[in-house]
Amino acid sequence: MSSGQRCNITVLISGGGTNLQALIDAARSPVNPYRVAHVISDKPEAYGLTRAKDAGIDTTVVARHKGEDRSVFDARLADAVDTTGADLVILAGFMRIIGGRLVSDYAGRMLNIHPALLPLYKGLHTHQRCLDAGDLVHGTTVHFVTAELDDGPSVLQAELDVQVDDTVDSLNTRVQALEHQIYPMAARWFAEGRLQLDGAVVRLDGVALKRPVRVTADSLVA
Ligand code: GRF
Asked: Which residues lie below 8 Å from residue 161, measured CB to CB, with a gap of 6+?
């Protein structure tokens, strides 16, 4: 990315794409330092593809063929991402474990958002697991992607207080509302050159983070 140019983001999705929409909406501002340049889905029916097309963004479907070896799919996906010329790759509800060349080639240039306060609750069913544990606090995490699932260095977290009457659905709604604010924020930091991965250390404005930046639901409702 040369100076003065907007950072090109390629977003990988599998589903509804509300986080994709938040990134697209944020990028509409002329002062925003990134543009969503391309959307790739492994599901041809993903509604996020419609969101992308409505916004005039190029799309590609890379579906896994029946019986296709995972390494072959990973290679096709990496080729597709390369073709988009991405400065930053954003996983937004991409429901596949990413592996192979894509992870190594885009190390430090690939972010994911996970609906839990990592390192708590890697994997699926995070809201149910939070309720089962009786947690008082829950949230979401933006992290760099590594070869381990939901395990890369965390950048930014948003937390909320769990209410006594919260359900999986209500937590999902409330957590997603936080995601729609913090994912564009983290993307902006990266695009501005403020956010870097230095080995396993996350740097923001050159300062190594001992823990992810943590914001609260209250502080985000400005
Ligand atoms: C988000 O909640 C995110 O945390 C998880 O997948 C969900 C994607 O939702 N990784 P959407 O497709 O962006 O609406």
From this structure: 136, 137, 217
Catalytic residue among 38, 65, 114, 143: 114
- Does the reported pTM lie above 0.90? yes
Strands 137-144 and 110-114: antiparallel
Could you tell me the two tokens for 106?
A: 């885009």
* Segment 154-187, tens digit of pLDDT: 999 999 999 999 999 999 999 999 999 999 999 9
> Residue 222 — pLDDT band, cuts 50, 70, 90?
low
Concerning whether 114 is annotated as a catalytic residue, the answer is yes
Q: Which residue has the tokens 């008082």?
A: 136
Which residues have C-beta within 8 Å of that of residue 154, sequence separation ≥ 6? 118, 141, 142, 143, 202, 211, 212
Q: Which domains does the chain have, with CATH numbers?
A: 1-106 (3.40.50.170), 113-222 (3.40.50.170)
What is the Å distance from ligand 1's center to 4 Cα? 31
Q: Atom 8 of ligand 1 has which residue's CA nearest to it?
A: 93
Cα atoms in the 13 Å half-sphere on the side-chain side of 169: 0
Closest-lying ligand 1 atom to the alpha carbon of residue 22: 13
Residue whose CA is closest, atom 7 of ligand 1? 93
Q: How many residues does the chain have?
A: 222
Of all protein residues, the one whose alpha carbon is nearest to atom 5 of ligand 1 is 93
The amino acid occupying position 99 is: G
